[in-house]
Amino acid sequence: MADTPTGAVTEDAAPIPEYPMPRATGCPLAPPPAVGALRGAKPITKVRIWNGTTPWLITRHADQRALLTDPRVSNDDHEPAFPHVNAHRAAIAPHTPKLITNTDAPEHTRLRRSVNAPFLVKRIEAMRPAVRRIVDDLIDEMLAGPNPADLLTVLALPVPSLVIAELLGVPYEDHELFQGNSNRVLDSSLTADEAAAAGAARSAHTWAPSSSGSRLAFNHTGTAYGVKCLPVAW
Asked: 3-class DSSP state for residue 34?
């Protein structure tokens, strides 16, 4: 935007802080103290990120909500000036397909509609027993394992990938492989080639039809239809 946003600080009025900012030594989930200070004093301000560029940092919830619905703001990480969080994300962005997470309307709207069916309330509610089993199994493994445990590693990361595997119909014996490659795809320490290899490995499996003979079908965007089927290839 051409005009300086309300609450912003101009570059000649104060030094531009580095981002991300150091976290406190207490709760690892708490935002950095400097972010809290900015929320009170300069809720809209520029920060300097890893590559020296200075995007805007928005720290107030109301401002964030307003920006998320403003068509002038883009989520397209293929844009040249997109503020990638690190060098890894910048390196893989040109090779990343158009997804719900990196597109704007109308493409985002089209992609979102194409995946609405598997996430209807009835279908998600039907998955409750499977999700409970996944969480219970992981908690049992955590209690039987080393003490103390890292909740991020043993619970927070595995649950989403295993639930997605359940949603897609990945056979239980392949869950560990699916989860491992999913984690590698999201690992910011990997090179673009390593992340691409993990993504290919996750997508290269071929499974047999389910007992009912149904197969998981994909449209041209790669969207899966039907959550009670086993994928043939993806």
From this structure: helix
